[in-house]
Design brief:
By secondary structure, the chain is an alpha+beta fold. It is built from ten helices and four strands, in the order βαβαββαααααααα. A four-stranded mixed sheet has the order 2-1-3-4.
């Protein structure tokens, strides 16, 4: 092997290069500059980006609103991670880990910060008594698959996605290593969905909402342009489930919030009311489902 990397005795932070994404992070946490976050009129303030992790929360909020739960109204502000918005003093105060999404819940009369996408999903599901069984086996199974997603998705995103789509050069070893793991995960999901309509059983839950933005988007061809490479069509049960969820109003609306790229009808950088989404979806061509 040529150009083999030999690690030094002590790691050095050497990210000086042209790769934008490699230069964002640092071994140090905390705020890098002072800037307060905007605050809207609703009790729920979301600071996020329309990546798979961000989509989880906006899909759940839109599903709650579709049920007529007015208390789930929210303001969603765009956090541009490419511009390092996540390192502002305001954002770090809500999430000291500087990762999207982050939620500020003001409904109890005092500010409650909630971060990590799974934590936000549980917080909202329990707050509004929706999409999370209250007890018993169904609740346990929902948590099993919710936390499966939290443990598995980094192999898809930070592993496969990084080396296949974003790294400076294609490298065989990491791509093969993470492609194998992603295909194994898809097989796990495919076998689970062969026995169930939804991930955790016969009821739609926050487990589905957590998994669809990563694995649903992947098999629908919306992630990393890797559908052919991973032969996603062979996971027929995952494809069936992904298409089923894609038809839901909450999914269609939630997936485009805090998004500033793609087609014009897929971009709602900020959301403060239902009309912000409605006017964008009106631009969607009739040929698009």
């Amino acid at each position: 092997m040529t150009n083999q990397y030999t690690p030094p005795k002590v790691w050095q932070n050497n990210t000086n290069g042209a790769n934008k994404w490699a230069n964002i992070n640092s071994p140090d946490s905390g705020a890098r500059f002072d800037k307060e976050l905007p605050v809207g009129k609703h009790a729920l303030q979301l600071y996020s980006l329309g990546t798979p992790n961000g989509q989880k929360v906006t899909i759940l909020l839109e599903e709650l609103l579709a049920l007529g739960i007015k208390e789930a109204e929210y303001d969603a502000y765009l956090i541009n991670i490419g511009e390092k918005d996540q390192f502002s003093s305001g954002f770090v105060a809500v999430n000291p880990n500087s990762k999207i999404p982050a939620l500020l819940d003001k409904s109890a009369g005092e500010d409650e910060t909630v971060f990590e996408s799974a934590s936000i999903l549980v917080h909202l599901a329990e707050k509004f008594n929706q999409f999370l069984p209250k007890d018993g086996k169904a609740r346990t199974q929902t948590f099993n698959w919710l936390f499966w997603a939290q443990g598995s998705a980094p192999f898809l995103g930070g592993g496969f996605g990084h080396f296949y789509a974003y790294a400076d050069e294609k490298q065989e070893y990491p791509i093969n290593r993470f492609a194998m793991e992603v295909k194994r995960q898809l097989d796990v999901l495919d076998k689970q969905l062969a026995k169930n309509t939804f991930i955790a059983g016969e009821e739609y839950s926050i487990a589905d909402i957590a998994i669809w933005p990563w694995y649903g988007n992947l098999v629908l061809g919306n992630l990393y342009d890797a559908a052919e490479f991973l032969e996603v069509e062979s996971y027929t049960n995952v494809v069936r489930w992904a298409k089923l969820l894609e038809t839901r109003e909450g999914v269609q609306r939630g997936r485009i919030i805090n998004r500033s790229w793609g087609e014009e009808w897929e971009q709602v950088p900020e959301r403060h009311c239902a009309q912000d989404i409605d006017k964008v979806l009106k631009l969607r061509p009739s040929t698009v489902k």
